[in-house]
Amino acid sequence: MNKKSDKNNIYEESLEKQKANYSPLTPLSFISRAAKVYGDKTAVIHGDREYTWLDTYNRSKRLASALNKIGIGEGDTVAFMGSNTPELYEAHFGVPMSGAVLNALNIRLDAKTIAYILDHGEAKVLFTDREFSETIKDALKIASVKPTVIDVDDVLAPPGDLLGKHDYEAFIDTGVSDYHWAMPSDEWNAISLNYTSGTTGNPKGVVYHHRGAYMNAIGDILSWNMSQSPIYLWTLPMFHCNGWCFPWVIAAMGGTNICLRNINAKEIYEAIDLYRVDHMCGAPIVLGMILNAPDDEKNSFSHTVKIMTAGAPPPASIIQGMESSGFNITHTYGLTETYGPSTVCAWRDEWNEQSIEEQAVLKARQGVEYPVLESLSVRNPETMEPVPSDGLTMGEVMMRGNNVMKGYLKNNEATEEAFTGGYFHSGDLGVMHPNGYIELKDRSKDIIISGGENISSIEIENTLYSHPQIIGAAVVAKSDEKWGETPCAFVELREGAATITEDEIIDYCRNNMAHFKCPKNVVFGPLPKTSTGKIQKFLLRKEAEKF
Protein backbone atom coordinates (compact mmCIF):
# COMPACT_ATOMS: atom_id res chain seq x y z
CA MET A 1 0.00 0.00 0.00
CA ASN A 2 1.37 3.37 -1.02
CA LYS A 3 1.67 5.94 1.71
CA LYS A 4 0.46 9.43 0.97
CA SER A 5 2.78 12.31 1.64
CA ASP A 6 2.05 14.27 4.80
CA LYS A 7 0.74 17.24 2.80
CA ASN A 8 -2.06 15.05 1.42
CA ASN A 9 -2.92 13.49 4.76
CA ILE A 10 -5.85 15.34 6.35
CA TYR A 11 -4.98 13.85 9.74
CA GLU A 12 -1.68 15.67 9.79
CA GLU A 13 -3.13 19.12 9.07
CA SER A 14 -2.93 21.38 12.16
CA LEU A 15 -2.95 18.33 14.43
CA GLU A 16 0.57 18.54 15.81
CA LYS A 17 1.75 17.42 19.22
CA GLN A 18 1.58 20.22 21.73
CA LYS A 19 1.64 20.76 25.48
CA ALA A 20 -2.10 20.27 25.85
CA ASN A 21 -2.23 16.84 24.20
CA TYR A 22 1.19 15.25 24.62
CA SER A 23 3.68 14.56 27.36
CA PRO A 24 6.50 12.04 27.52
CA LEU A 25 5.61 8.78 29.23
CA THR A 26 7.41 8.36 32.56
CA PRO A 27 6.69 6.35 35.72
CA LEU A 28 7.45 9.50 37.70
CA SER A 29 3.90 10.58 36.96
CA PHE A 30 2.69 7.65 39.09
CA ILE A 31 4.01 9.05 42.37
CA SER A 32 2.70 12.58 41.81
CA ARG A 33 -0.75 11.08 41.22
CA ALA A 34 -0.38 8.79 44.25
CA ALA A 35 0.41 11.81 46.45
CA LYS A 36 -2.75 13.56 45.22
CA VAL A 37 -5.13 10.58 45.30
CA TYR A 38 -3.70 8.52 48.17
CA GLY A 39 -1.79 11.19 50.07
CA ASP A 40 -2.69 10.03 53.61
CA LYS A 41 -2.56 6.32 52.78
CA THR A 42 0.46 4.29 53.98
CA ALA A 43 2.94 3.88 51.15
CA VAL A 44 5.99 2.33 52.81
CA ILE A 45 6.50 0.29 55.98
CA HIS A 46 9.95 -0.68 57.24
CA GLY A 47 10.11 -1.89 60.83
CA ASP A 48 8.84 0.97 62.99
CA ARG A 49 9.04 3.45 60.12
CA GLU A 50 5.94 4.32 58.11
CA TYR A 51 5.51 6.89 55.36
CA THR A 52 2.36 8.00 53.56
CA TRP A 53 2.29 8.60 49.83
CA LEU A 54 2.55 12.33 50.46
CA ASP A 55 5.57 11.70 52.73
CA THR A 56 7.22 9.49 50.11
CA TYR A 57 6.61 12.01 47.35
CA ASN A 58 8.04 14.85 49.42
CA ARG A 59 11.06 12.80 50.49
CA SER A 60 11.71 11.86 46.85
CA LYS A 61 11.52 15.53 45.84
CA ARG A 62 13.92 16.49 48.62
CA LEU A 63 16.33 13.82 47.35
CA ALA A 64 16.10 15.22 43.82
CA SER A 65 16.58 18.77 45.07
CA ALA A 66 19.61 17.77 47.17
CA LEU A 67 21.20 16.02 44.18
CA ASN A 68 20.72 19.10 42.02
CA LYS A 69 22.34 21.27 44.71
CA ILE A 70 25.57 19.27 44.44
CA GLY A 71 25.57 19.52 40.65
CA ILE A 72 23.86 16.24 39.70
CA GLY A 73 21.58 16.37 36.68
CA GLU A 74 20.84 14.95 33.24
CA GLY A 75 23.39 12.42 32.05
CA ASP A 76 24.85 11.75 35.51
CA THR A 77 24.84 8.33 37.17
CA VAL A 78 23.81 7.84 40.79
CA ALA A 79 24.73 4.41 42.18
CA PHE A 80 22.96 2.80 45.13
CA MET A 81 24.23 -0.16 47.16
CA GLY A 82 21.40 -1.21 49.40
CA SER A 83 18.80 -3.70 50.55
CA ASN A 84 15.05 -3.28 50.23
CA THR A 85 14.61 -0.12 52.30
CA PRO A 86 12.59 3.11 51.98
CA GLU A 87 15.75 4.89 50.83
CA LEU A 88 16.21 2.68 47.76
CA TYR A 89 12.49 2.90 47.04
CA GLU A 90 12.65 6.71 47.12
CA ALA A 91 15.71 6.65 44.86
CA HIS A 92 13.59 5.12 42.09
CA PHE A 93 11.73 8.43 41.96
CA GLY A 94 14.11 11.04 43.38
CA VAL A 95 17.12 10.17 41.21
CA PRO A 96 15.29 10.43 37.85
CA MET A 97 13.39 13.51 39.14
CA SER A 98 16.80 15.18 39.33
CA GLY A 99 17.42 14.23 35.69
CA ALA A 100 20.03 11.64 36.66
CA VAL A 101 20.11 7.88 36.06
CA LEU A 102 19.75 5.34 38.88
CA ASN A 103 22.23 2.45 39.02
CA ALA A 104 21.01 0.03 41.72
CA LEU A 105 23.92 -2.31 42.49
CA ASN A 106 23.69 -6.03 43.14
CA ILE A 107 24.57 -6.38 46.83
CA ARG A 108 25.95 -9.87 46.24
CA LEU A 109 28.75 -8.80 43.92
CA ASP A 110 32.41 -8.70 44.90
CA ALA A 111 34.44 -5.51 45.26
CA LYS A 112 36.27 -5.91 41.93
CA THR A 113 33.03 -6.14 39.97
CA ILE A 114 31.46 -3.24 41.90
CA ALA A 115 34.53 -1.13 41.10
CA TYR A 116 34.22 -1.96 37.41
CA ILE A 117 30.52 -0.97 37.41
CA LEU A 118 31.21 2.32 39.21
CA ASP A 119 33.90 3.16 36.66
CA HIS A 120 31.99 2.03 33.60
CA GLY A 121 28.83 3.88 34.66
CA GLU A 122 30.89 6.93 35.69
CA ALA A 123 29.09 7.17 39.03
CA LYS A 124 29.04 10.70 40.46
CA VAL A 125 27.25 9.79 43.70
CA LEU A 126 27.16 6.52 45.64
CA PHE A 127 24.57 5.81 48.34
CA THR A 128 25.65 2.83 50.41
CA ASP A 129 24.06 0.88 53.24
CA ARG A 130 26.46 0.30 56.14
CA GLU A 131 25.88 -3.47 55.89
CA PHE A 132 28.00 -3.46 52.72
CA SER A 133 30.70 -1.07 53.89
CA GLU A 134 33.54 -3.61 53.67
CA THR A 135 32.80 -4.42 50.02
CA ILE A 136 32.35 -0.74 49.16
CA LYS A 137 35.58 0.27 50.93
CA ASP A 138 37.51 -2.25 48.83
CA ALA A 139 35.68 -1.25 45.64
CA LEU A 140 36.45 2.44 46.14
CA LYS A 141 40.15 1.62 46.56
CA ILE A 142 40.13 -0.09 43.15
CA ALA A 143 37.79 2.26 41.26
CA SER A 144 39.10 5.20 39.26
CA VAL A 145 36.00 7.33 39.88
CA LYS A 146 35.65 9.15 43.18
CA PRO A 147 31.92 9.53 43.75
CA THR A 148 30.38 11.51 46.57
CA VAL A 149 29.58 8.82 49.17
CA ILE A 150 26.39 9.08 51.22
CA ASP A 151 25.56 6.55 53.93
CA VAL A 152 22.24 4.82 54.50
CA ASP A 153 22.23 4.27 58.27
CA ASP A 154 19.32 1.87 58.59
CA VAL A 155 18.55 0.97 62.20
CA LEU A 156 17.68 -2.60 61.07
CA ALA A 157 21.03 -3.11 59.33
CA PRO A 158 23.85 -5.18 60.86
CA PRO A 159 26.87 -3.27 62.19
CA GLY A 160 29.08 -1.60 59.63
CA ASP A 161 31.23 1.46 59.06
CA LEU A 162 29.88 4.77 57.84
CA LEU A 163 31.98 5.87 54.86
CA GLY A 164 30.49 9.15 53.65
CA LYS A 165 30.43 12.81 54.66
CA HIS A 166 26.65 12.67 55.12
CA ASP A 167 24.02 10.13 55.91
CA TYR A 168 20.88 9.87 53.80
CA GLU A 169 18.57 11.79 56.15
CA ALA A 170 21.02 14.67 56.59
CA PHE A 171 21.53 14.78 52.83
CA ILE A 172 17.86 14.99 51.87
CA ASP A 173 17.41 17.63 54.58
CA THR A 174 19.51 19.92 52.34
CA GLY A 175 16.79 19.62 49.69
CA VAL A 176 13.31 21.13 49.63
CA SER A 177 9.95 19.37 49.43
CA ASP A 178 8.45 22.09 47.19
CA TYR A 179 11.07 21.29 44.54
CA HIS A 180 9.56 21.67 41.06
CA TRP A 181 10.92 18.69 39.20
CA ALA A 182 10.64 18.52 35.43
CA MET A 183 9.26 15.71 33.32
CA PRO A 184 11.91 14.23 31.04
CA SER A 185 12.32 16.28 27.88
CA ASP A 186 12.08 13.02 25.94
CA GLU A 187 10.58 9.70 27.05
CA TRP A 188 13.61 8.08 25.38
CA ASN A 189 15.84 9.62 28.08
CA ALA A 190 17.58 7.09 30.31
CA ILE A 191 15.95 6.40 33.70
CA SER A 192 18.13 3.59 35.05
CA LEU A 193 21.22 1.51 34.45
CA ASN A 194 21.41 -2.19 35.32
CA TYR A 195 24.28 -4.60 34.75
CA THR A 196 24.18 -8.12 33.39
CA SER A 197 26.18 -10.90 34.95
CA GLY A 198 29.13 -10.68 32.58
CA THR A 199 28.68 -13.89 30.61
CA THR A 200 31.60 -13.25 28.28
CA GLY A 201 33.80 -10.95 30.32
CA ASN A 202 32.86 -7.80 32.16
CA PRO A 203 29.17 -7.17 32.86
CA LYS A 204 27.29 -5.08 30.29
CA GLY A 205 25.39 -1.97 31.27
CA VAL A 206 21.73 -2.19 30.24
CA VAL A 207 20.08 1.20 29.78
CA TYR A 208 16.36 1.65 30.46
CA HIS A 209 14.32 4.62 29.21
CA HIS A 210 11.34 6.36 30.80
CA ARG A 211 8.90 5.03 28.20
CA GLY A 212 9.99 1.42 28.70
CA ALA A 213 9.79 1.67 32.50
CA TYR A 214 6.30 3.18 32.25
CA MET A 215 5.11 0.54 29.77
CA ASN A 216 6.54 -2.43 31.64
CA ALA A 217 4.96 -1.22 34.88
CA ILE A 218 1.62 -1.13 33.08
CA GLY A 219 2.38 -4.60 31.70
CA ASP A 220 3.00 -5.92 35.23
CA ILE A 221 -0.37 -4.55 36.37
CA LEU A 222 -2.32 -5.97 33.43
CA SER A 223 -0.56 -9.35 33.29
CA TRP A 224 -1.09 -9.91 37.00
CA ASN A 225 -4.66 -8.57 36.96
CA MET A 226 -3.58 -6.46 39.93
CA SER A 227 -6.34 -4.85 42.00
CA GLN A 228 -6.27 -1.34 43.47
CA SER A 229 -4.25 -0.70 46.65
CA PRO A 230 -2.26 -3.97 46.80
CA ILE A 231 -0.21 -4.85 49.88
CA TYR A 232 3.12 -5.74 48.32
CA LEU A 233 5.91 -7.56 50.17
CA TRP A 234 9.44 -6.87 48.94
CA THR A 235 10.88 -10.39 48.71
CA LEU A 236 12.36 -9.51 45.31
CA PRO A 237 15.53 -7.37 45.45
CA MET A 238 14.91 -3.85 44.16
CA PHE A 239 18.28 -4.04 42.41
CA HIS A 240 16.97 -6.82 40.12
CA CYS A 241 15.87 -4.93 36.98
CA ASN A 242 14.62 -2.15 39.29
CA GLY A 243 12.54 -4.72 41.13
CA TRP A 244 10.96 -5.80 37.80
CA CYS A 245 9.55 -2.23 37.68
CA PHE A 246 7.42 -2.85 40.79
CA PRO A 247 8.55 0.30 42.66
CA TRP A 248 6.69 2.20 39.97
CA VAL A 249 3.80 -0.33 39.83
CA ILE A 250 2.91 0.08 43.51
CA ALA A 251 2.89 3.87 43.15
CA ALA A 252 0.57 3.60 40.14
CA MET A 253 -1.84 1.41 42.10
CA GLY A 254 -1.68 3.36 45.37
CA GLY A 255 -0.51 0.26 47.20
CA THR A 256 1.59 -0.30 50.31
CA ASN A 257 5.23 -1.39 50.14
CA ILE A 258 6.29 -3.71 52.95
CA CYS A 259 10.10 -3.60 53.01
CA LEU A 260 11.89 -6.78 53.99
CA ARG A 261 15.63 -6.67 54.62
CA ASN A 262 16.07 -10.32 55.46
CA ILE A 263 14.43 -12.81 53.12
CA ASN A 264 13.50 -15.81 55.21
CA ALA A 265 10.35 -17.89 55.62
CA LYS A 266 9.60 -16.79 59.18
CA GLU A 267 9.58 -13.08 58.35
CA ILE A 268 7.63 -13.67 55.14
CA TYR A 269 4.87 -15.54 56.98
CA GLU A 270 4.82 -12.94 59.76
CA ALA A 271 4.42 -10.12 57.23
CA ILE A 272 1.66 -11.96 55.35
CA ASP A 273 -0.24 -12.41 58.61
CA LEU A 274 0.44 -8.97 60.14
CA TYR A 275 -0.10 -6.78 57.07
CA ARG A 276 -2.40 -9.09 55.06
CA VAL A 277 0.11 -9.12 52.21
CA ASP A 278 -1.60 -10.09 48.97
CA HIS A 279 1.20 -9.70 46.38
CA MET A 280 4.87 -10.63 46.26
CA CYS A 281 7.52 -11.60 43.73
CA GLY A 282 10.59 -13.77 43.73
CA ALA A 283 12.68 -16.48 42.17
CA PRO A 284 11.61 -20.14 42.51
CA ILE A 285 13.96 -20.45 45.49
CA VAL A 286 11.64 -18.15 47.45
CA LEU A 287 8.73 -20.48 46.69
CA GLY A 288 10.70 -23.47 47.96
CA MET A 289 11.71 -21.56 51.09
CA ILE A 290 8.08 -20.74 51.87
CA LEU A 291 6.75 -24.20 51.11
CA ASN A 292 9.45 -26.13 52.99
CA ALA A 293 9.58 -23.91 56.08
CA PRO A 294 9.28 -25.69 59.45
CA ASP A 295 5.78 -25.62 60.88
CA ASP A 296 6.85 -23.38 63.77
CA GLU A 297 7.88 -20.67 61.25
CA LYS A 298 4.55 -20.68 59.43
CA ASN A 299 1.65 -18.36 60.21
CA SER A 300 -1.80 -19.34 59.06
CA PHE A 301 -3.75 -16.93 56.84
CA SER A 302 -7.16 -17.10 55.22
CA HIS A 303 -6.66 -14.86 52.17
CA THR A 304 -4.95 -15.69 48.86
CA VAL A 305 -1.43 -14.41 48.24
CA LYS A 306 -0.48 -13.86 44.62
CA ILE A 307 3.13 -14.67 43.77
CA MET A 308 4.86 -13.76 40.51
CA THR A 309 7.91 -15.89 39.92
CA ALA A 310 10.56 -15.79 37.21
CA GLY A 311 13.85 -17.46 36.44
CA ALA A 312 14.40 -21.16 35.92
CA PRO A 313 10.98 -22.84 35.68
CA PRO A 314 9.89 -23.85 39.19
CA PRO A 315 9.37 -27.62 39.60
CA ALA A 316 5.75 -28.57 39.09
CA SER A 317 5.77 -30.10 42.59
CA ILE A 318 6.66 -26.70 44.09
CA ILE A 319 3.88 -24.95 42.19
CA GLN A 320 1.41 -27.64 43.20
CA GLY A 321 2.45 -27.38 46.86
CA MET A 322 2.20 -23.58 46.90
CA GLU A 323 -1.23 -23.61 45.24
CA SER A 324 -2.43 -25.99 47.94
CA SER A 325 -1.12 -23.66 50.69
CA GLY A 326 -3.04 -20.49 49.84
CA PHE A 327 -0.76 -19.05 47.17
CA ASN A 328 -1.58 -18.36 43.53
CA ILE A 329 1.41 -18.64 41.19
CA THR A 330 2.00 -16.62 38.03
CA HIS A 331 5.08 -17.64 36.06
CA THR A 332 6.84 -15.00 33.97
CA TYR A 333 10.03 -14.81 31.94
CA GLY A 334 12.33 -12.02 30.91
CA LEU A 335 15.83 -10.67 31.05
CA THR A 336 17.64 -7.61 32.33
CA GLU A 337 17.43 -6.33 28.75
CA THR A 338 13.61 -6.49 28.82
CA TYR A 339 12.99 -4.65 32.12
CA GLY A 340 12.50 -7.98 33.88
CA PRO A 341 9.35 -9.97 33.01
CA SER A 342 8.16 -9.56 29.44
CA THR A 343 6.22 -12.81 29.00
CA VAL A 344 3.59 -14.38 31.21
CA CYS A 345 1.98 -17.79 31.42
CA ALA A 346 -1.49 -16.28 30.94
CA TRP A 347 -4.09 -18.60 32.41
CA ARG A 348 -6.70 -20.09 30.07
CA ASP A 349 -10.17 -21.02 31.31
CA GLU A 350 -10.03 -24.48 29.78
CA TRP A 351 -7.05 -25.33 31.96
CA ASN A 352 -9.33 -25.26 34.99
CA GLU A 353 -10.57 -28.69 33.92
CA GLN A 354 -7.06 -30.15 34.19
CA SER A 355 -5.77 -31.94 37.27
CA ILE A 356 -3.68 -29.99 39.78
CA GLU A 357 -0.60 -31.85 38.55
CA GLU A 358 -1.30 -30.93 34.91
CA GLN A 359 -2.03 -27.32 35.86
CA ALA A 360 1.34 -27.11 37.61
CA VAL A 361 3.12 -28.31 34.46
CA LEU A 362 1.31 -25.69 32.37
CA LYS A 363 2.13 -22.92 34.86
CA ALA A 364 5.84 -23.71 34.55
CA ARG A 365 5.83 -22.55 30.89
CA GLN A 366 7.13 -19.10 30.02
CA GLY A 367 3.93 -18.23 28.15
CA VAL A 368 2.95 -15.37 25.86
CA GLU A 369 4.05 -11.78 25.43
CA TYR A 370 3.15 -9.04 27.89
CA PRO A 371 0.37 -6.75 26.62
CA VAL A 372 3.00 -4.01 26.12
CA LEU A 373 5.45 -6.21 24.18
CA GLU A 374 4.97 -5.90 20.43
CA SER A 375 6.25 -9.33 19.48
CA LEU A 376 7.46 -12.57 21.07
CA SER A 377 8.88 -15.13 18.71
CA VAL A 378 11.02 -18.27 18.50
CA ARG A 379 13.23 -18.02 15.43
CA ASN A 380 16.18 -19.55 13.68
CA PRO A 381 18.91 -17.02 14.55
CA GLU A 382 20.67 -17.60 11.21
CA THR A 383 17.70 -17.20 8.86
CA MET A 384 15.45 -15.19 11.24
CA GLU A 385 12.56 -17.40 10.16
CA PRO A 386 10.05 -18.45 12.85
CA VAL A 387 10.26 -22.11 13.88
CA PRO A 388 7.16 -24.28 13.51
CA SER A 389 4.69 -24.02 16.39
CA ASP A 390 4.98 -27.72 17.15
CA GLY A 391 6.36 -27.67 20.69
CA LEU A 392 9.40 -29.59 19.40
CA THR A 393 11.51 -27.45 17.07
CA MET A 394 14.00 -25.34 19.00
CA GLY A 395 15.01 -21.82 18.11
CA GLU A 396 16.13 -18.66 19.84
CA VAL A 397 13.58 -16.70 21.87
CA MET A 398 13.35 -13.13 20.55
CA MET A 399 11.44 -10.01 21.56
CA ARG A 400 10.57 -6.66 20.03
CA GLY A 401 8.78 -3.70 21.56
CA ASN A 402 8.76 -0.79 23.97
CA ASN A 403 10.00 -2.83 26.91
CA VAL A 404 13.28 -3.73 25.27
CA MET A 405 16.32 -1.79 26.49
CA LYS A 406 17.78 1.28 24.78
CA GLY A 407 20.98 -0.73 24.41
CA TYR A 408 24.25 -1.49 26.17
CA LEU A 409 26.10 1.48 27.65
CA LYS A 410 29.25 2.35 25.69
CA ASN A 411 29.08 -0.94 23.77
CA ASN A 412 27.68 -0.32 20.29
CA GLU A 413 28.98 -3.63 18.93
CA ALA A 414 27.11 -5.66 21.56
CA THR A 415 23.96 -3.56 21.02
CA GLU A 416 23.98 -4.12 17.27
CA GLU A 417 24.55 -7.84 17.74
CA ALA A 418 21.67 -8.10 20.24
CA PHE A 419 19.30 -6.29 17.83
CA THR A 420 20.22 -8.19 14.65
CA GLY A 421 17.27 -8.63 12.30
CA GLY A 422 15.03 -6.18 14.15
CA TYR A 423 14.56 -8.34 17.25
CA PHE A 424 16.27 -8.56 20.61
CA HIS A 425 18.10 -11.88 20.75
CA SER A 426 17.70 -13.40 24.23
CA GLY A 427 20.30 -16.11 23.80
CA ASP A 428 17.78 -18.56 25.25
CA LEU A 429 16.60 -21.56 23.27
CA GLY A 430 12.99 -22.65 23.36
CA VAL A 431 10.02 -24.04 21.47
CA MET A 432 6.72 -22.55 20.42
CA HIS A 433 3.67 -24.63 21.31
CA PRO A 434 0.66 -24.77 18.96
CA ASN A 435 -1.29 -22.47 21.33
CA GLY A 436 1.36 -19.74 21.00
CA TYR A 437 3.01 -20.35 24.40
CA ILE A 438 6.79 -20.56 24.53
CA GLU A 439 8.78 -22.98 26.67
CA LEU A 440 12.50 -22.67 27.37
CA LYS A 441 14.68 -25.69 26.65
CA ASP A 442 18.29 -24.55 26.92
CA ARG A 443 20.51 -21.49 27.17
CA SER A 444 22.84 -20.73 24.34
CA LYS A 445 24.80 -18.29 26.52
CA ASP A 446 25.51 -20.91 29.19
CA ILE A 447 23.78 -18.89 31.89
CA ILE A 448 23.03 -20.68 35.15
CA ILE A 449 20.05 -19.24 37.04
CA SER A 450 20.52 -19.96 40.73
CA GLY A 451 18.18 -18.47 43.30
CA GLY A 452 17.14 -15.79 40.84
CA GLU A 453 20.76 -14.77 40.13
CA ASN A 454 22.33 -15.18 36.69
CA ILE A 455 25.69 -16.92 36.91
CA SER A 456 28.09 -17.15 33.99
CA SER A 457 29.62 -20.60 33.49
CA ILE A 458 32.43 -18.90 31.59
CA GLU A 459 33.34 -16.74 34.59
CA ILE A 460 33.59 -19.81 36.83
CA GLU A 461 35.61 -21.67 34.19
CA ASN A 462 38.07 -18.80 33.93
CA THR A 463 38.58 -18.90 37.70
CA LEU A 464 39.10 -22.68 37.63
CA TYR A 465 41.60 -22.38 34.79
CA SER A 466 43.64 -19.97 36.93
CA HIS A 467 44.27 -22.77 39.44
CA PRO A 468 47.82 -24.07 38.90
CA GLN A 469 46.79 -27.74 39.00
CA ILE A 470 43.77 -27.54 36.65
CA ILE A 471 44.31 -28.05 32.92
CA GLY A 472 40.71 -28.26 31.79
CA ALA A 473 37.39 -27.04 33.17
CA ALA A 474 33.75 -26.93 32.16
CA VAL A 475 30.77 -25.73 34.20
CA VAL A 476 27.12 -26.62 33.61
CA ALA A 477 23.84 -26.16 35.41
CA LYS A 478 22.68 -28.88 37.78
CA SER A 479 19.02 -29.04 38.80
CA ASP A 480 18.44 -28.18 42.43
CA GLU A 481 15.16 -28.39 44.36
CA LYS A 482 16.02 -25.36 46.50
CA TRP A 483 17.97 -23.04 44.17
CA GLY A 484 16.48 -24.02 40.81
CA GLU A 485 19.96 -24.58 39.43
CA THR A 486 23.49 -24.68 40.85
CA PRO A 487 26.89 -24.69 39.10
CA CYS A 488 28.51 -28.10 38.69
CA ALA A 489 32.19 -28.04 37.72
CA PHE A 490 34.03 -30.73 35.79
CA VAL A 491 37.81 -30.42 36.05
CA GLU A 492 40.78 -32.14 34.51
CA LEU A 493 44.00 -32.03 36.54
CA ARG A 494 47.52 -31.64 35.19
CA GLU A 495 49.52 -34.83 34.88
CA GLY A 496 51.41 -35.44 38.06
CA ALA A 497 49.40 -32.85 39.97
CA ALA A 498 49.23 -33.22 43.72
CA THR A 499 46.04 -34.63 45.20
CA ILE A 500 43.37 -31.97 45.54
CA THR A 501 39.90 -32.31 46.99
CA GLU A 502 36.50 -31.01 45.95
CA ASP A 503 36.37 -28.75 49.01
CA GLU A 504 39.77 -27.25 48.19
CA ILE A 505 38.64 -26.30 44.70
CA ILE A 506 35.41 -24.78 46.00
CA ASP A 507 37.41 -22.80 48.59
CA TYR A 508 39.72 -21.59 45.82
CA CYS A 509 36.74 -20.28 43.88
CA ARG A 510 35.31 -18.61 46.99
CA ASN A 511 38.58 -16.74 47.43
CA ASN A 512 38.55 -15.47 43.86
CA MET A 513 34.92 -14.62 43.05
CA ALA A 514 31.55 -13.85 44.59
CA HIS A 515 30.51 -16.77 46.81
CA PHE A 516 27.10 -17.30 45.23
CA LYS A 517 28.77 -17.96 41.86
CA CYS A 518 30.96 -20.79 43.12
CA PRO A 519 30.35 -24.41 42.08
CA LYS A 520 28.45 -26.56 44.55
CA ASN A 521 29.84 -29.79 43.08
CA VAL A 522 33.19 -30.65 41.52
CA VAL A 523 33.72 -33.78 39.41
CA PHE A 524 37.23 -34.96 38.49
CA GLY A 525 38.17 -36.69 35.27
CA PRO A 526 38.89 -36.23 31.57
CA LEU A 527 36.49 -33.90 29.76
CA PRO A 528 34.57 -35.28 26.75
CA LYS A 529 35.63 -33.45 23.59
CA THR A 530 34.82 -33.38 19.90
CA SER A 531 37.43 -34.13 17.26
CA THR A 532 38.19 -30.41 17.11
CA GLY A 533 38.74 -30.19 20.86
CA LYS A 534 35.40 -28.58 21.82
CA ILE A 535 34.08 -29.73 25.18
CA GLN A 536 30.77 -31.58 24.81
CA LYS A 537 28.70 -29.82 27.44
CA PHE A 538 25.52 -31.67 26.54
CA LEU A 539 27.14 -34.85 27.88
CA LEU A 540 28.23 -33.07 31.04
CA ARG A 541 24.71 -31.76 31.69
CA LYS A 542 23.46 -35.34 31.71
CA GLU A 543 26.34 -36.41 33.94
CA ALA A 544 25.75 -33.54 36.41
CA GLU A 545 22.25 -34.81 37.20
CA LYS A 546 23.77 -37.99 38.67
CA PHE A 547 25.43 -36.14 41.55
Protein topology:
Elements: H1 28-37, E1 42-46, E2 49-52, H2 53-69, E3 77-81, H3 86-97, E4 101-104, H4 111-121, E5 123-129, H5 133-142, E6 148-152, E7 166-167, H6 168-172, E8 190-195, E9 205-209, H7 210-223, E10 231-233, H8 241-244, H9 246-252, E11 256-258, H10 265-275, E12 279-282, H11 284-291, E13 305-310, H12 316-323, E14 327-335, E15 340-344, H13 356-363, E16 368-369, E17 373-379, E18 395-401, E19 407-408, H14 412-418, E20 424-432, E21 438-443, E22 447-450, E23 453-456, H15 457-465, E24 470-480, E25 484-493, H16 502-510, E26 521-524, H17 537-544
Parallel strand pairs: 1-11, 3-4, 3-5, 5-6, 6-7, 10-11, 10-12, 12-13, 13-14, 25-26
Antiparallel strand pairs: 1-2, 8-9, 9-19, 14-15, 15-16, 17-18, 18-20, 20-21, 22-23, 24-25
Helix pairs in contact: 1-2, 1-9, 2-3, 4-5, 7-9, 11-12, 12-13
Describe the 3D structure.
The protein is an alpha/beta fold and 547 residues long. The protein has a domain at 447-544: GMP Synthetase, Chain A, domain 3, CATH 3.30.300. The chain is built from 17 helices and 26 strands. The strands form six sheets. The protein has a nine-stranded mixed beta sheet, sandwiched between helices. α3 links the parallel β3 and β4 (101-104). α7 (210-223) crosses α9 and α12 (316-323) crosses α13. The longest helix has 17 residues, at 53-69. It starts with 27 loop residues before the first helix and ends with a helix. The model has no long low-confidence stretch (mean pLDDT 91).
